[in-house]
């Protein structure tokens, strides 16, 4: 480099002194970048702007939310634009209100505080993320804004829990009413609400609503509509109509009549076993959604195969009699999750996770030849989906999602480009 001295008519060189190169520091993220989880720590769940009685919270439920990746999808719930969600699992809360747990990294998460019956007493209305290996801490649940110190240190001795779903069935994706709740209704409810009679004019059969998909209305089942449209039975937070901020027991299982009926039982309703009750509560606390995915070709919409249904009914008649064989298809087969079908669970022994309702000719386990035969016929009675999703579009002809043209145009453009290359000898 040179400069011009104003007092001298010449250009003089400026000596360049080399600067030392900063040392290369090892990446602090290198050891954690492949981790799939992070850790949350809550110092005291009772630290809140709302009154939560000490000792009333027994666990914290971790919920994973599934982002919608395309603009237009079928409705999933009575609530418009409901986000598909699944339960990662509950973790126990200590007597002092503290809790620490691992949670999936890179996923939007929300939390709920649960009472001794596994019902939400307080719920988040936003979500949080964890980076791989990250540790995140907070003072409490809906704590006052000015109560958070500069840094919260997680006690070294605190136990870090791994949340796991508390009750089956276990499946990929978000919570599905047909997979999780309908089997409970098939076990306890449809004999009075859907089969021989419909007490209180309430049908809880899993029969799907027929007709074209219309945006703005969930294309669900008879049972779902019966429960969610009956005033006071189910309480949901309706989009743009919910209260300004969360309060204890404001919505979900605690706010509707259904959970109370199933928990306590009465002269007309049998008290549910704990696992079945938790299934219904999980559904209610996730804002009573029907579908757990954004697909245009849902498993819940599959229809019976005529030949397969005929073979199944013939086998049911030979095995269990004419009366059971004549019942509605939805009362026998769960098209969304075949292993949860009533015709499989009712004859299966309670010790084998069945219902034990047909004990005289039932099965002791899932390895029983009779069970295996019936399972094969159940699976064969379900017709395939007529199409499959392709990059978030319906993949159907004619298109019902309104987005297939984008994918098709890209494919056509790609074919033209490739054809042009061949003509040019490229």
Q: Write down how many β-strands occur, each being a DSSP E stretch of 2 or more residues.
A: 9
Mean pLDDT across all amino acids: 90
Low-confidence stretches: none
- Note the beta-strand portion: 5-15%
- Proportion of residues in helical segments: 10-25%
Q: What shape does the CA trace take?
A: globular
Please count the helical segments.
11
List the strand order in the largest sheet.
5-4-7-8
Give the class from helix and strand content and strand pairing: alpha+beta
> How many independent structural domains?
4
Describe this protein's structure.
This protein is an alpha+beta fold and about 425 residues long. The chain has four domains: about 35-145, Immunoglobulin-like (Sandwich), CATH 2.60.40; about 175-295, no CATH class; about 300-380, no CATH class; about 395-425. Helices cover about 25% and strands about 10% of the residues. The chain is built from eleven helices and nine strands. A four-stranded antiparallel beta sheet has the order 5-4-7-8, with no helix packed on it. Strands 6-3-9 form a three-stranded mixed beta sheet, with no helix packed on it. A hairpin with a 6-residue loop joins strand 1 (about 1-5) and strand 2 (about 10-15). Helix 6 (about 305-320) packs antiparallel against helix 10 (about 370-380). About 35% of the residues are buried. The model has no long low-confidence stretch (mean pLDDT about 90).
């Amino acid at each position: 480099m040179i400069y011009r001295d104003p007092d001298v008519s010449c250009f003089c060189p400026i000596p360049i002194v080399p600067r030392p190169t900063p040392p290369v520091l090892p990446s602090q993220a290198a050891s954690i970048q492949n981790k799939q989880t992070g850790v949350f720590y809550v110092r005291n769940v009772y630290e809140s702007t709302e009154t939560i009685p000490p000792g009333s919270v027994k666990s914290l439920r971790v919920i994973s939310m599934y982002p919608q990746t395309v603009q237009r999808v079928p409705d999933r719930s009575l609530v418009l634009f409901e986000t598909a969600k699944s339960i990662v699992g509950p973790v126990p809360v200590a007597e002092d209100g503290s809790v620490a747990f691992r949670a999936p990294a890179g996923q939007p998460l929300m939390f709920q505080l649960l009472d001794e019956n596994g019902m939400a007493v307080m719920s988040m209305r936003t979500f949080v993320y964890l980076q791989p290996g990250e540790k995140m801490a907070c003072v409490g649940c809906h704590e006052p804004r000015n109560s958070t110190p500069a840094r919260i240190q997680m006690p070294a001795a605190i136990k870090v829990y791994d949340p796991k779903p508390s009750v089956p069935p276990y499946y990929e994706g978000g919570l599905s009413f047909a997979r999780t709740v309908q089997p409970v209704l098939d076990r306890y409810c449809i004999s009075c609400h859907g089969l021989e009679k419909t007490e209180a004019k309430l049908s809880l059969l899993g029969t799907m609503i027929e007709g074209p998909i219309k945006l703005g209305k969930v294309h669900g089942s008879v049972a779902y509509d019966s429960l969610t449209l009956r005033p006071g039975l189910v309480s949901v937070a309706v989009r743009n109509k919910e209260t300004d901020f969360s309060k204890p027991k404001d919505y979900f299982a605690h706010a509707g009549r259904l959970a109370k009926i199933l928990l306590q039982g009465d002269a007309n309703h049998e008290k549910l076993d704990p696992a079945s009750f938790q299934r219904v509560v999980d559904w209610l606390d996730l804002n009573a959604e029907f579908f757990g995915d954004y697909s245009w070709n849902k498993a819940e919409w599959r229809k019976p195969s005529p030949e397969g249904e005929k073979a199944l009914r013939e086998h049911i008649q030979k095995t269990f009699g004419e009366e059971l064989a004549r019942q509605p298809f939805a009362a026998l087969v769960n098209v969304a999750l075949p292993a949860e079908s009533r015709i499989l669970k009712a004859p299966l022994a309670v010790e084998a996770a069945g219902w034990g309702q047909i004990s005289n000719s039932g099965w002791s386990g899932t390895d029983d030849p009779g069970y295996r035969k019936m399972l094969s016929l159940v699976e064969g009675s379900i017709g395939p989906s007529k199409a499959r999703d392709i990059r978030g579009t319906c993949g159907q002809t004619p298109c019902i999602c309104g987005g297939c043209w984008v994918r098709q145009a890209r494919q056509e453009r790609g074919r033209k480009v490739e054809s042009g290359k061949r003509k040019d000898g490229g």
